[in-house]
Amino acid sequence: MRLGKAVRGVAATLAGVLALSACGGGDDAADKGPANLRMTVWSANEAHLKLFNEIADEYRKSHPDVASIKFDPLPFENYTTTLTTQIAGGNAPDLAWVFENSAPDFVASGALLPLDEKLKKTEGYQYDDISPATLKLWQDGGKLYAYPFSTSPFGVFVNTDMLKKAGQKTPAELIAAGQWNWDTALTVAGATAGATGKAGLVIRDFDYKGWDNLSTLWTGWGAQAWSEDGKSCGFAAPEMVEAMTTLHKAIFTGKALPGPGTTADFFAGDAAMTVTQISRASLLKPDGFGWDLVPLPAGPKGNYSVVGQAGVGVMKKSKNADAAADFLAFLTNPTNSAKLAQFFPPPRQSQLTAETLAKTNPTLKPEQLQKVVIDGITNGVVKPSHAGQAELSQQVRAGLDPLWKADADVKAVLEGVCTKIQPLLAK
Predict the structure, then answer these.
(1) Residue 317 class from Cβ within 10 Å (0-12 exposed, 13-18 middle, 19+ buried)?
(2) What's residue 32's pLDDT?
(3) pLDDT by residue (tens digit) across 280-331?
(4) Can you tell me the distance from the alpha carbon of 154 to that of 163, in angstroms, rounded to the nearest whole number?
(5) Which residues on neighbouring strands pair with residue 95, listed in sequence order?
(6) Among the listed residues 254, 242, 357, 387, the one whose alpha carbon sits nearest the alpha carbon of residue 301
(7) Lower Cβ count inside 10 Å, N or C end of the chain?
(8) Dihedral (CA of 333, 334, 336, 338) sign
(9) Treating both helix axes as pointing N-terminal to C-terminal, what angle do 389-400 and 10-20 enclose, rounded to 10 degrees?
């Protein structure tokens, strides 16, 4: 990614921007009339944006000091790079969605406004209802720098019509028989691809670039990108080699996953299964194919869950920082949190019940919400995140590139990844 060379790491970019930026921020807003707020988001989904805008319109009814609230979708695959480029170019948003993989950099950079005092003092906010476990990634020095907007476990969406047409058992049947694991999932995916000419299983947003999405597979082997303290590379560990060998065979021998350069959209009916989060359920068409949602297949280490977590923070240097923080408190209050739970599983403990989530998730059954979402949040591990993630991600992606060939030496490639990133981890 060429742009990444100019932006060597999120933390470095933010530090430079902060050093060069003029002092001040929210206190200047009153001198310039009503505020025009902009919040960057990763999704351009119409249903997501419609709900955001409805909440924003409701807020503006009682806040004449805010003239407009714009939700600015940035492409998912380049989201963080685009956001940091905007910041570096003096075009920073007032609020920003931040992915878990860049949380350490944003939190430590000083770019975000502390939110604790504002949220705790907002009437009816019920700050203590937020699960402490969901706050950890977004805290530093005892202060909260982003609200854990979405704590969303990964599950497997299934095109049951396609599997039945291919003569394969559905995951629900395999679960009932105690056979839902990666071996059977990949076997079913390969057989379905061969019978239908479509894709078997797609790990959404991987596309041979978003390597951290592969944690939805390798965690089942007990593998990690790096150690818990972040100082040692885990790519060359036996568990990772075994997991990635399984993946490599599934791609190039079993044809269970689309190969490099091939794309397939599950929600358009082009694949039998996809690993993704429930926010994608909005892409399902009411008159489309039969479908199901099930937990990730078990790995050699047993059942597990992987969670993607996004936070929303206020840029400290925003000239509308005070107004932005106030809107964030409104956007994430108990009432609106319940509305947003339709797409983005909330961190509020009182709302993490199948009954509560079912009210705003009519397309999902209570059993699906319990097993995939609630159990997943309770037991899941968060996708890989590390300080300097931007540079690390570039090095991991480059190091994995040789793996996506039929004759690749998996162990040697993974050892090469560690050679690339160990100096960065040791800093």
Answers:
(1) buried
(2) 67
(3) 888 898 889 999 999 999 999 999 999 988 999 999 989 999 999 999 999 9
(4) 21
(5) 39, 314
(6) 242
(7) C
(8) positive
(9) 150
